[in-house]
Amino acid sequence: MGREKEKEKPSEKALNLLRSRLSDPNFIFRPLSDSPDSNYSKLKFIISTSVTEACNNSILLLGPRGSGKVAVLELVLSDLLQQYPEAISVIRLNGLLHSDDNCALKEIARQLCMEHQLLFSKVASFDDNSQFMIAMLRECGLAHKTIIFVLDEFDFFAQGKQRLLYSLLDAMQSVNSQAVVIGVSCRLDVDQLLEKRVRSRFSHRKLLFLSPSKEDTERFMEHILSLPMDSSLPHNYAAEFNGRLKKILSDERFKELIDTYLSFNFTIGHLVRFLFQAVSYMDLNAGFLSLGNFKTALSSNQRQLKLESIRDCSVLELYMMVCMKRLEVKEQTSYNFYSVMTEYKSIHDSFQTSDYYAANVCLRAFEHLLQCQLISFIDNKGHNQSVEFRPVKLLISSAELHQGLKSYQQCPAILLKLMDR
Amino acid sequence: MGGKDNVSRQFTYPLKTTHRPLPICKTLKKKSKIATNFVTFTKQQYTKMPTETPRKQFQSPKKPKQSPNNVKSQSSTPSIHLSPQTPQLPLRRSSRRSLQLFTSKTVDEMLDLSTPRKALEALDGIGKCSGNNRKGSSVRTPRTLKCKFNEEDREIPEMGKVGEGNGEVEDAFCPVSPEALESKKRKKGLSEEGSVKMGKSPKCKLNEDLGKLGEGNGDVVSPEKRKKGLRNEESVKTRKSLRCKLSEEEMEIPDLGKLGDATFFPVSPQALESKKRKKGGEKRAVTRAMATRSLKKVNKEEKKGRKRVYYKKVVYDGGEFEVGDDVYVKRREDASSDDEVPEMEECRVCFKVGRGVMIECDDCLGGFHLKCLTPPLKEVPDGDWVCGFCQARKLGKDVEFPKPPEGKKRVRTLREKLLASDLWAARIESLWKEVDGSYWFRGRWYIIPEETASGRQPHNLKRELYRTNDFADIEMESIIRHCNVMSPKEYAKANDQGDDVFLCEYEYDIQWHSFKRLAEIDNDEDGECANGDEDWNSCKEDDSDTDEDMEYEEENERNAHARPSTTHQLAANSRKGRFFGIQKVGTKMIPEHVRCHKQTELERAKATLLLATLPKSLPCRNKEMEEITTFVKGAICDDQCLGRCLYIHGVPGTGKTMSVLAVMRNIKSEVDAGSIRPYCFVEVNGLKLAAPENIYTVIYEALTGHRVSWKKALQLLNERFSDGKKIAKGDDRPCILLIDELDLLVTRNQSVLYNILDWPTKPHSKLIVIGIANTMDLPEKLLPRISSRMGIQRLCFGPYNYQQLQEIISSRLKGIDAFEKQAVEFASRKVAAISGDARRALEICRRAAEIADYNMKNQISSVNSSTVKDVVTMADVDAAIQEMFQAPHVQVMKSCSKLSKIFLTAMVYELYKTGMGETTFEKLAMTFSCLCTSNGEAFPGWDTLLKVGCKLGECRIILCEAGDRHRVQKLQLNFPSDDVAFALKDSKDLPWLAKYL
Description:
The complex is a heterodimer.
Chain A: H1 2-22, H2 25-29, H3 39-52, E1 57-62, H4 69-83, E2 88-94, H5 95-98, H6 101-115, H7 126-142, E3 146-152, H8 154-157, H9 163-174, E4 179-185, H10 190-193, H11 196-201, E5 205-208, H12 214-225, H13 235-250, H14 252-262, H15 268-280, H16 291-301, H17 305-311, H18 315-329, H19 337-351, H20 359-371, E6 375-377, E7 392-394, H21 398-407, H22 413-420
Parallel strand pairs in A: 1-4, 1-5, 2-3, 3-4
Antiparallel strand pairs in A: 6-7
Chain B: H1 2-12, H2 22-31, E1 35-36, H3 53-59, H4 68-75, H5 85-100, H6 107-111, H7 115-129, H8 137-164, H9 169-172, H10 178-188, H11 191-200, H12 204-216, H13 223-228, H14 233-249, H15 254-264, H16 271-294, H17 296-305, E2 309-311, E3 313-316, E4 319-322, E5 326-330, E6 358-360, E7 367-369, H18 388-394, H19 414-419, E8 423-433, E9 439-447, E10 464-475, E11 479-486, H20 488-493, E12 501-509, E13 514-517, H21 520-539, H22 545-562, H23 592-596, H24 601-609, H25 622-637, E14 644-650, H26 656-673, E15 680-685, H27 694-704, H28 710-721, E16 735-740, H29 751-758, E17 767-773, H30 778-781, H31 784-790, E18 793-797, H32 802-812, H33 821-834, H34 838-862, H35 874-885, H36 889-895, H37 898-914, E19 918-920, H38 921-934, H39 942-954, E20 958-960, E21 970-973, H40 977-984
Helix pairs in contact in B: 2-22, 3-8, 4-16, 8-11, 8-12, 8-15, 10-11, 12-14, 12-15, 16-17, 24-34, 25-26, 27-28, 29-31, 32-33, 33-34, 33-35, 34-35, 36-40, 37-38, 37-40
Domain BAH (chain B): 403-519
Keywords (chain B): ATP-binding, DNA replication, DNA-binding, Magnesium, Metal-binding, Nucleotide-binding, Nucleus, Zinc, Zinc-finger
Organism (chain B): Gossypium arboreum (Tree cotton)
């Protein structure tokens, strides 16, 4: 018994360690930040020069979601905060929350007040806040303090009149301040969204966050998954764990597996999610990662959702979908509940199926299909119309429907026939 | 009222509580701003107060003549003294004391800077004076009397002028006038000579009369006051008779009274007496207030006379002191004991002051003769020089400086004393003559690094001082002499300007113990503004009530600001004229990297290329600036300035706003020089307004300083501009309104623009509007009634061509060898071809410098090679241009996942096939599966495919509808298909893609 506990302990510990690593962006992005070509060092250079040389900058961090824009930024900021304590204050805004200029300025004023232990008034107007911001920019510039504005989801700030960006960037070009505006966005065309006056004032540093190279991914996986040799974990255990991991990583099948997984989304965030899943499948009794874990994780990621929802449908619902499919084959692009019902009736009349239900039952089935999003309304018009009159569209392709019917266990044979005809 | 009381108590706390209504006090202050530009004084003319013992002795026989009451009334003269500034002093002083842990003084002494110290000095001066040939008491007695005469004589005409009320006091002392000549002579000559001359002057009789008067009674009170003051009946009679005489000659009495006062002001050694004085002053003020009501005209004169007279420049004790000068101030009473201040520093080796060039050690600040050094130097070396002693000490040796020869004490210079905190330095903020004739100045303390909370920081220079936000009213007497506190720039140039040179780069907040860089430019501008205001105020005779109230508020606020604990905490961002608590912002320590870092060429280049740095000259816009100048000047000088409106247009970054502002700066300097009438300038930015209507509020606030709602502001502005009503002072000045981003003011019915553009057409508006926008045809887009008002005079700022851009960049980079010539040309050509935006060009160059810097630093850290080029090359500029102008989508497409690549290929293929830009997901999926099957790829399934599409849509590589549309989702490429083809043609993992592109 006691032995078992001892045996279990290291594996549990290892699992916890791996999980906590995978959910800590600092740990994930640290090893990728050494080289001078990395975004980390470029970004750090830009920000630290504006701290030390007292200049203004505006930077855009672009890249698909999950490529670690904010994580790298946070890494840089935490490093710089350690390096220059007191000299940096960070103002964080999110486009989803503060896209309104008025509320964004208010938030800036609030955070500035918090940062400098000033009293903040909620009722201050737009003008007050913007002038307060400019005054603070000047004062902080004189006091050698850098204000860093982090605008997450930057594209939302680049809408409308863009007063916030204008007053911020205009202040930065006229006041002797030291401020950095960092826009983070996954939209690659975000600088085209800027108004011409704002664009002219923007200093257009761009950092592009791209997918890591294949070698980087391998290095990265090894970095994350291998256990440290000098921790509380038993040395033998850690050594064996790492040995097995190495074997897995060098396995051709594993490489294939990872390739398939990353073939549709090649970002670090995506990979980390996969690894987390795989690690969670780890068998605690065995205590080691196996190729099987990764396989399960992959298969759980490759689910065909529409097919699964077909599996949950009733036979009547299958009938209705087949009817819709038939209507489409007849080149009837637009159909509503009644036209589907006519088709259903005609099928029933010609084939005398046993599954014939009343219209109100069919309507229920129709509504359920709508809820499953297997069908949807064609347009958003006509909300006041009742459901049965609005034109709908089948959202599942005929190939998928066919596959679904085949895999459906109690599927009447007639349905498959109808599909083909 | 409660608040005011509170404030006044705060001010006067150690002296005496005043219950005098403050508004009066305000009036006084306001009126007292009659600035005299230049007053000369010899030391003899103005007898020094603290070392005034002889005079005191001289006065003492007189005192018995006066009744005790008399003394009181006499001492009560300096009523004006009680303006809110003065009494603030004790508080500030104590705060300073606590900061410095200066323990050697009793509380009493510390409370009042001037009086007790003066007294003390006076007391121990008795002993010293005899030996001191400067203040020999035997010589003194007659001399004082004479100089009194001089002073009176000099003062009369001045006050006469004041009486005329034109505020041209300055003229009275311009060198042309005979009085000034005389005073100059006097300045040169000894006092005896001066008195002889005086005897010759036609006013001799008067002088004697005055002298008598002075001897008889120190105070001259106007008749009105006499009615109240029953105590000094006799003396008043004398005065009255005198008055008649005077009024025949000069028509001015109260000032004479004041003058008499000045000379016979009793130097009271006890704080008690000073208290009495204050009390008296307070009474007097009440009296005067009553008199105001009873007799207006005389009161006016009297007020003028009984007021502090502010000067810009005073010659005192042989030195010329100006507002803005820095001076040494005595710190301790016993400081006078070692007051033989050596003008020259002694050599640290031979201990002789002498000819021969001396060199200063940059470490210990000791001075050395070049020939005394071992080995002797021929000339002063360039760069830093450290003496042999310091070098040795740095090496860890125990060094002793050569001891001075026997019997000779090493004399410390003022600089050494200051840096050893035996002295103070202060900056003169304002100079005035008190009612009692003593000269005071308001000083802003400097502090040495050791006295700050953080102590001396490693990067502090030896000669560094901090300017504090601590003010005090100090008597001129405590000034020792000038010192020279410089900004870093000046300091760097000051090589051989003597010993009294200090560096000041930071302001130190004594409450929050924080540092802040001095904003030089801002400060200067503010200073100019303030001066200008003063001048204009003094030109005006009648000040409206609102003015005084305003100033009272300002004063009040300033004091509230100064007090450490404000009772009413105000939010920082709710602006009532200023932001509360913003002075808190400041570093506790000055970061080292700012001071110790020596800038490389590249860093200097980056600094000058910043958008925020104002270039010294603005090249390439001379024609446009000239046009603006002629427009503005024509409009100002024109009496009517009817319908003046200028519309400036041009694409962003072509220097529109900058040119206008530069023109306004130039014109302002001309105004300061006096060649152009003063005007007011209001700048509004349309994009910074929350709503177009707010412009009224902003304009009104800029004109008057009051904040009202926009409707009210519109009404008031209408009254002012259309109906010609005056709302505040300075209304007769023409007003220039600069509206940046004018297009933002266009509302639905365009009423805002109409109103603003309609005012200039009104006969008495004196409004000039300069509008700036980007579009050329903005007036045409507006209603005809607006375009007819705006579109007449236009000025176009065309985009810069590449030569101009090149000139702009190279003018900024003048003297910095950081850029290859072709690099600059390349950048400017590129920008000129795209937009002609100067900001872009500057930013590209800055970015290129940044890239070069980055590469260089990386190389240094990695290879440590010495052959690193520190010049910005074409490659760097190219990289910067790529970063700025190239859309990043090609790179993203190149690096995106396998399925995304196939997806994009399928889209391009679909596009070629159908010729339609838009496709649906269903069709695309079919194509996709076709591609997959024919090239041996596994089809991932529709759901995965949908996700891939949505991912691409997120990055806006394709435009797509929301994912829940699924099969009917519409898709479209966001970039030209050629870009996709370019990006994917040679992808390694999917070579077959090229077939379909």
